[in-house]
Amino acid sequence: MIQLLFFGRLGELAKGVPTMVAAQTPAEIRRLLAVDFPMLGMALSEPQVLVSVNKMIVDWDEPLSEGNEVAFLPPVTGG
Amino acid sequence: MDTIRIQNNDFDLAQEYQLLRGLSATVGGVVTFSGLVRDFERESSIESLSLQHYPGMTENLLQEIIDQANARWNLIGITIIHRVGRLLPTDQIVFVGVASEHRGEGFTAAQFLMDYLKAKATFWKQVSQDGKQFWVDSKSSDADAAASWESNEG
To answer: Which domain holds residue A50?
Structure first.
């Protein structure tokens, strides 16, 4: 299973979303989530949203392994 | 020597300055930047700011930014402090300090560190205003400031 994390405004859109899923790539997770959570699916498809695996920014078609931590990151606003 | 701290507590500017100043007798100058919570968002006052981050990833990203600064300039020490949690207007939110032999490298590196921090480090601000909460939008000017360093080798 893959553990999911959502930050910033994505965290609010992800209320009620399962925290563990089975998927081969982050892009597949996005497709799966869009079925039951269309607002979240749309937000995740915005080009500024980045995805990380085990705290490293990756492409959406990065192959996933059992136990990976996938985080969805809206544009950052620190500083 | 470089330091990264992400904390709820406030920081003391004088103390951070003294730590950088005392790193080596070759330190010729210390440049510091302190960012504050502005009481102004979407053209009106705010009640508070809440800072979220991605523990573990944020520290890794800040270390990468520090490594890039050290690769570009001859620096003696860098300190980055970023606060998280609930903050009020006028609170200190971020500190960047650079100790170097010469002022030019210190000024330039401090600006580079802040530009990259704002564009890349995994922090998100949520504002409370008029009893409502909203997430702050990123500014394209911040992305542009970071991008300008990509074509400028320092």
So the answer is: 2-73
Is residue A79 domain-resident? no
CATH of the domain at A57: 3.10.20.30
Question: A–B: how many Cβ contacts below 8 A?
Answer: 66
Judged by a CB distance cut-off of 8 A, whether residue A67 touches chain B is no
CA angle B3, B94, B122 (to 5 degrees): 80
What is this structure's pTM? 0.94
What is the H or E stretch that residue B6 is in? strand B2-7
Closest among A34, A36, A35, B96 to A72, alpha carbons compared: A34
Reported ipTM: 0.94
Q: Give chain B positions within 8 Å (CB) of A9.
A: 124, 135
**Residue B116 near residue B146, CB atoms below 8 Å:** yes
Backbone angles phi, psi at B7, to 5 degrees: -150, 155
CA distance B66 to B146: 14
The two structure tokens encoding residue B98: 């650079």
Contact between chains at B125 and A77 (C-beta distance less than 8 A) = yes
pLDDT digits (tens, 9 = 90+) for B77-129: 999 999 999 999 999 999 999 999 999 999 999 999 999 999 999 999 999 99
The count of structural domains within chain A is 1
